[in-house]
Structure formats: C-alpha cells, structure tokens
C-alpha cells in the first residue's frame, strides 16, 4: 500500500460501507458497488492504495448515507482483484479478504469515504486446551454433516473440504465461506477473536439452522401428504361417479345429491327468464361434477346461494290511499310541502298507470333538514320495503357493480346487496350522500351509477358478480345530497331535483314541539307531565343556542334539557321541571347567538339590507359615511367582488340622479365615500345588496333619513332597474324576526311570495319595486328637496356579533 497514511491511532485508507455483506480474511467474493461515494472510494483504492480497501458492514441496510455510529466496529481489509463497470454507474468487483481490522474512525468526505483502522490478528491465540479444541472440531463436523443431510443439493466438494480439514482455522473457513448464513451471524463470526471461539459460535449457529430446516421439512411433508390425500379422495370420488353412471343411479354420492336437487328445485320455482335459469342450471351441473371440498365448488355454491337469495319476481302491494299517505307524511314531518306534493303526485299517477317506471328523486339541501328521514316516511306512506345504501366515500366502481366471482372474496355490489336485504323487487332504495362519491385508479363509481338510475337501462342491470341481468325498474330510488356541485352532469340529468331549503324559525318551532320534544322525552324516560318546555323557551333555544339550517343542534339541546330535568327529578325529588326563556340560561349557560340588532330609528346613510346564509336569513345593515376629500371610494366589511361591483354601480347611478335629490353634482370629485357592512370578519358577497347601497348613498349624500322599520333586497342595473334575487323565504323571515314593518323586494319576485311563511305575510307589508325610484319612494322619510346639502352621517351604534356563517346577499 504505497500511499497509506500512518497516524498515531492507526492507518487511513479508502472505505466502502457494505450492506448485507461480510467478508472474511482469505475469502474471495463478488459484489456490486452502486453508491456514488462508494464508487469513488473504490476508484481511490485502485489508484492510490494498490487496490486495498477497507470493507465494513452497516448495521441498518436502509441507511443511504451512513456515519460511524451506523457501522460495525470490525471489518476486513480486502484487495481488489477485478472491477467491471456496468450501465447505470454500478461497478461489479471481485475482492479477496486480507486481514481483519478495527474501525477507529470514519471520515466522510464530499465524494468518498475514508477510515482510520487498526489492524487485528485474523486468529488470536486460543484459550482452549488442545483436547477441548479437538472436541469442538468434532462437534462442528457432526453438526455440518447433519446440516448437509437437511440442506438440498449440498456440493460434494464442500462436504469433502469440511471433513478433510486439518486445523481449526481450515475447518472454520471451509464452513463459514461456503454455508449461507445470516448477515448478523457472519458479523459475529468475524468479530470472534480465536479459531476456537469462532467454532463454538459456528456450532451454535448450525444447531439453530438445523432446527429451522427440520421444521421446514416437516411442514413440507405435511403439505405433501395433504395433497396426496386430496388426490386420493378425488380419484375415489371419480371412480364412485363412474360406477354410479354405469348403474344409472345419478352423478353423486348420497351426501351431495340432496343439495344438487334442492338447487334444481329452487331454480325451477324462481320467477326469472329462461336465460337466467339456463345459466344457473349450467352452474349446478358444474358443481355436480366437482369434489365438494374443492375451492371452485365453494365459489359456485356461494354464487348460487347469492343469486337464488335475490327477490326474483317478489313484489309488495303498494298502498293506493292518497289520504293515508298524506297523513303519514304530515305526521312524520312538518313543512316540506314540495316533497310531499311530489310523493302524492307519484301515488296518484300510480293509481292511473300501475306499470309506471323510472322514478328517481334527488333531495338536495343542507345537513339536518330531514332528507334521510323523508325517504323512510315515503316507504311507510307507500307500504314499501325500505333499504338504505350509503355512498359516502365510495371510490371503487366494484362497490356499485360488484366483483367478478372468479376473484377470492368476490361479492355483489351495494345495489344488488340492498335488493337482497329488502327482500322485494319494488322497495324504496335510499342512495344516501350521492355527492360524496369520488373516483381514483379503480374506476369512477358515479359512471357505474348511470345504469342504475337510468330508467331506460336499469330494467337489465348487470352486476359483475351475478353475470345475469336484474330488473331495477320497479325500485323507487331516492338520492340525497348536500350540494349538486360534485355530482356528475350525466348523473344529475337522470334525477328529478327537489331542493330542501333551511328551516325557518317557525318551522323549527313546530318541528321541535311536535316531533323532537316527544322523541327526546321518550328517549330519556320522561313524560310530558314530568318535563315541559314553554313556547318562549323553545324560541329561546332556536334563536339563542342554535344557528343551523336543520334541527340537529336543536334536538341535542332539547336532549340536554331532558338530562338536566332527569337529574333534578332524582336529586331534588321534584315531580315536574319546567323550562322557560327565563331559566334556560341557568341550565345551558349564556346565550350563544344574539338576534340581529335592527336599528328602528330613522337614520341618514344607514339602511337595513337582507342576506341569505346557509343557516337561514339575517339582516345586513349597510352604513355610508360622506367626508370631504378627492372622490375616493372605500369599501370595508369583507365584501366580495360582486358586492364591490354593486357599490361602483350605486355611485354611478347616484351621479345620474343627483339633481333629483339635491346632491352636489361634483360629489365624486370633492367627497370621499366609505361604505361599510358591519361584522367585518364575516365574508359577504352577492348582487342583491344593490338597492341597499343606492338607498344608503342617496340618503348620506342628500341628508334624507331612511325608515328604520324597513328592510330591502334587490339587484340593480345602471339604468335603475331592480332585478330578482334568491332566498326570499329566508330573508323575509329574518326581517320579521327583527321587527321590520315593511320589506322592499323586486317586482319579479312577486311569485316567490307563495313560499314565504304565512306569519310573515300577515305581519309584514311588502313593496314590490320595478325601479330604484320605487325603492327610494318607499324608503326615504321625506320627499327630496333640491336645497338639501350632504351632511355627516350620525354615529353608528355598535352591532352585536352573530354566528360566522358566510352571508350571500
């Protein structure tokens, strides 16, 4: 080694960390070098160190960039005999171990490894006496002989070398170099100092390997015997079948003949087409020719049981009494007029045309409004079987169509499984959360649903497991979804969409009083004589403790009051507990949601708008402040892009009508305008705040007050036309709750008044506006005067905080 560096603690030389490889001194071995730093170390050894390199094994083969702590303490200095470069930068090299060495330190350079090593003797002096060493050698030879008998294809040359070895060192090398041992065992043998200690450790390792090989041989013999027994049974069965065929006594022994006959009888009795019966008869014939315990026989038997378990031609008799169905629907649900009307229309058409098919209804609405429970009520109203299939999280097409029966663990899809559970060919099948399906590399389940929900195709739906057509045309499919945005267009086209909007305050009150309270009383073991919630208490729960589209949180709060009543009845031995608006905060804590703070005072530059949120309607006041400046327009309150555009339209329109309301014509040059929507942390967007912005701007610029008991909504155009808006039902309920006396809505929304609650129409005056002039005429307190100059808006009262639902105006 012409360039080895001698230092105080040892010698520095190139190093290659090896994975799953231990090289003994005197041993020749081939291995691949693939890591770039190891390849460079190999090149340095060939160029500068006469081909000598230090090989040391890693403790963990998964470490890509090892350090000293990742390496064993003992390795081998080897001489490189041959290097062959292969494509990809991997080098195939052959080395021969020279001597054992201890790793003192590991130097990790940017491109290679070096090691500080201390040479060690390959074999230190033995502590064993000569006769002890002879005994160890004999035991090793005996263990190797037993190992050779268990190890298949042991070369005779290796056996002769072991048995003919003259010394302990020769015996160790003959065994350790040629017997496949575990990586950690080879490292332990390398680290052992003397030949005697190496042989003792080797004897222990061979004993363990002998135990493992013996166990493997026993298992192999058991498997082989089992295969032979199965083959013997198969041959005997085949001989029995041949003899029975000759005697004309059938094709199976008595134990299976009854099963096959039962399958034939069931196929004959089922109300299916000849094509399906022929397919099933062929499967039974195949089963009759197989051994009963074979894997394929088990698959066919499961297939036949599944197909014959389906309700072929089994129908329940539907009700034809519309009044009875309406009573059931009204009893189970308050409101939901459109849904109930659609079901009753369906029932009326069925009376006229009993064979009508292709009915797929999709109920769309926010969580908690009763979509799933409506489907159950429909089944009760029609006297049909009901089955629910959850589609939430389904992302595999085979969940809908099933798996091929050739696969292990195959089963039919959810639709066919639902039919089997229903036990009827005309049930009500609820496909819950159809908008929660997703797709991946296993297919698109929504594409598989197309055939299920297409009335032109589902009379011959083919499940992959069944392999025969099944008629789904008599099933009344009801699907539910929270939103249609994630439902594929072709799938949406096959369904009749019925939207369920959020419940109004009055609807929640009636639902709680007629349904939720009774349900929770029964659930908690109470009666109406033991606990009572007053009407004002229910309104307190609805307004102060819930802010939701449905009634789930309301039901949980009622349940909480039931538990507190039960506790009070038991602890204080009272006979009845009454909850009202006064004492509910004592039980449920402080009020979580405050009502809209409607300012009833006539104000300048302050207008009550209305907004729709996912949990109902709310008031959306708008404030405008006019200041001396250079015509800047400031918009605050987390306004979206659409509302910002409405503000610019409002400013432009105010410039066009400045003369009519005594507004300075050059206000857009000399006045700064600040438009603010309170509750700045709540995002707001939508076009229907247009009339509110124009009214607030005209009021602030002209100094004319706006009625405090009036709320408004509507989109505007540059020419002053008022366009229709959505969510009128929820918005008007919010105005009624806030005590508004008059509501201004677009003329084109007059038809939507049918959906507005009766209590709102009885207590609120509606003004239908075609143009912004109609809005201003109703909202401004006194007629315009040309002499009126703009004035500063009065101080705005603080607005109470409400829930964080996003507002859409």
From TrEMBL:
It catalyses: Hydrolysis of proteins in presence of ATP. InterPro entries: AAA+_ATPase, ATPase_AAA_core, Lon_bac, Lon_bac/euk-typ, Lon_lid, Lon_proteolytic, Lon_Prtase, Lon_prtase_N. The keyword Nucleotide-binding applies. Pfam families: AAA (PF00004), Lon_C (PF05362), Lon_lid (PF22667), LON_substr_bdg (PF02190). It is found in: Cytoplasm. Keywords: ATP-binding, Cytoplasm, Hydrolase, Nucleotide-binding, Protease, Serine protease, Stress response. Residues 601-782 form the Lon proteolytic domain. One of its GO terms (biological process) is cellular response to heat. Induction: By heat shock. The active site is at residues 688, 731. SMART domains: AAA (SM00382), LON (SM00464). SUPFAM superfamilies: P-loop containing nucleoside triphosphate hydrolases, PUA domain-like, Ribosomal protein S5 domain 2-like. Its EC number is 3.4.21.53. ATP-dependent serine protease that mediates the selective degradation of mutant and abnormal proteins as well as certain short-lived regulatory proteins. Required for cellular homeostasis and for survival from DNA damage and developmental changes induced by stress. Degrades polypeptides processively to yield small peptide fragments that are 5 to 10 amino acids long. Binds to DNA in a double-stranded, site-specific manner. PANTHER family: ATP DEPENDENT LON PROTEASE FAMILY MEMBER. This is Lon protease. It comes from Ruminococcus albus 8. The gene is lon.
